[in-house]
Amino acid sequence: MMRSLCLLLAFWVPLAAAADLNPRLREGELEIDTPKGPLSLRFHNEGLVEAHYQPPHTKQLPSFTLASTQPLRAVQLQRRGDQYRFGCAECRIEVRIDSDPFRLSYYRDGELLIAEEAGLYAHETRRGFRFALEPEEMLLGGGQRVLGMDRRGERLPLYNKAHYGYTTESRQMYFSLPALWSSRNYILLFDNSAKGWMDLGKREPGILQFDALSGRTAYLIAAGDTPQQSLKHYLQASGMPPLPPRWALGHYASRFGYRNEAAVREVVRLHREQGFPLDAVVLDLYWFGPDIKGHMGNLAWDHAAFPDPERLIADLREDGVRTVLITEPFILTTSKRWQEAVDAGVLARDVAGRPKTFDFYFGNTGLIDVFDERAADWFWGILHGLKQQGVAGWWGDLGEPEVHPSDTVHAIGVADEIHNAYGHQWAGIVYERQVRDFPQERPFIMMRSGAPGSQRYGMIPWTGDVDRSWGGLKPQVELALQMGLFGFGYIHSDLGGFAGGKRFDRELYTRWLQFGVFNPVFRPHAQDHIPPEPVYHDARTRELALQAIRLRYQLLPYIYTAAWQHSTEGLPLMRPLFYLDPGNRALIERDDAYLFGDALLVAPVVSRRQRHMQLELPPGVWIDFFGNSVLQGGQSHQIKLQPEHIPVYARAGSFVPMIEAVAHTGEYSTRALQLHYYADPSVRVGHGQLYDDDGESRHAPGSQAFDLLRFKAEQAAESFAIDLSREGGDYRGRPAQRSIELIIHQWPGQPQRIRLGDATLPLHAEGSHSQPHTAPGAWYDSSNRRLHVRFEWVGDAARVMVEG
Q1: Which residues does the annotation mark as catalytic?
Q2: What is the C-alpha radius of gyration for the chain, rounded to an integer number of angstroms?
Q3: Model pTM score
């Protein structure tokens, strides 16, 4: 009898505790005593809430995701029977807290988004969360994988790991994210850096389970009225991606690798002689050693191959070309800095407290402990010296880390606890110290691996060592869209493919470069048995590549504006089609096409000898960017493919600002601007914008040292008007006035009159458009149905009125 009573009491106590939550709201943070230990709930903004459980005897690591831990103060707690409700008048999420049994549920406008099932579980070697999924819910996320857009039904390993030579399927890659976007329009992120898994209804169809070996027991929920708003709320809490230097959006010369100064000078010379725009040269590991193996960790110039690096960097910079250096976090025991690193105490350790050493492809090595402040200062001290020599940017490679033994001990934990945050911490060291020491300059940090929140360090990730094949090209849209959903808007691929390839495939190469025009970053890169640079190929390849690269530079005003939108609104440069129609489930699964910025829909060619494409367009009207055909959305069209370009369509009612191609972004100017508007009677009002600044100053967006040009088109039955306005201040290179060539696509015929404000512009006869670019006037191109209007604009509010 006594034993039965004890068992009954043991069962009864947790239930009683569950009903007595003792909620306490202090300066915006709600603290609750749950049956599983203390819980804190915080709104970091009106659209993001953090739930952080702290069960007894469970080690908690810091949040690597959150940029700030300051909670929103204007929150309230209400009680309705046995349920508490936590939120605010402006909040897009309401947390409902049930006491018996204890459970958190998340609502938007009274509609359930997601609810805990068992919620938190924590054991000695496992911890995680369980949530209930709705039957028709689609789930995107998990970071870099090649699995298809909807990943419901998958069990995803969360452990950053290299996948050399991947093609059309990859379950585990360089950059995993413990984050999901749901078709119910919320973002769920597990704020845990440890090795783990996300089960998206694979083992139990209605259950989402996150499972980790250790780490922080916290998660974030973000929600808004649209997917774009949900993303913005998440990035406001985890850090908006800063605007990169404008040169980062230009063309790079990059390979594995340039072995000496002569090779670097030669590749730049050939680009200039052949008329290819070029903004950067990227030096792989031969800058610090003559061989692939044995030298990693030198972190210093090999003066036998690069006798005067400062002169080289200065000469390249004079020619408009920046220098980017590869670095790795491994210090080989055969490198020149091994003993220095040991003596400085900057290496991760083994369980006996000695510098941890292990073998991998490049040799016997140690690993810099980026979680140790001494190591961070030591590492940055070396990079600072290189920066003073003129190095413009950093390429961080192998930062998963590529090899990371589980018994490696770091300053804040063992390897498996913090593995997925290693690249993130490394990027933070470089970014924060460069901002401190070179405060006016925008950092350039290209890295293969990171974690949620790495976007706030300006990280430019790429999709790793992709196979040089059509199979390698095919998944690149999926990879970019999945990463962009969580703020990694500069994700890109090694254009042309990196790994393998027995012979040069011109069609594959040119199709990949044509796709790259409409990528955030344009960087051909490969193993050097087949040159990745167009200047080393045949005349037809060079011709097609030159067309693509010149178009890239013509589009720089549009691309730079999209980058500014990414830094202010969180919008990725490559956007999924469902952004146009979030409720359209068919669009959620689309990875054959995407939006590039506000205006353009891009459909890459990803199959050999493909002559036609069946393309289903989203709702709306779409106008051929390279021609004059008009296609109706919401239906499928057969597109005849051209060798000179891939299919690109402009959304009716959109603006695309362009310039003439320049040799490098040092010559960039919006003084002479082509402003394309894509007209259609179905769109009565269209909007566009152009952002411009000096392209370099880190504080430009926040100090009014920019131009923000706004464009608005209004189309009626008898009239058409475009309004131009300007916001901002002054900056180096700002045009005092601009020569605008307004090109209105799909215009029906010769107008009767065109006015700029109160002035009437001259109408030139068709075929007389050989006027100087600055000559005011207009002419109609009937063969392409385009109306061209040229005028000078000083920046004051102006209206162009087309009559007839």
Answers
A1: 397, 400, 465
A2: 28
A3: 0.96
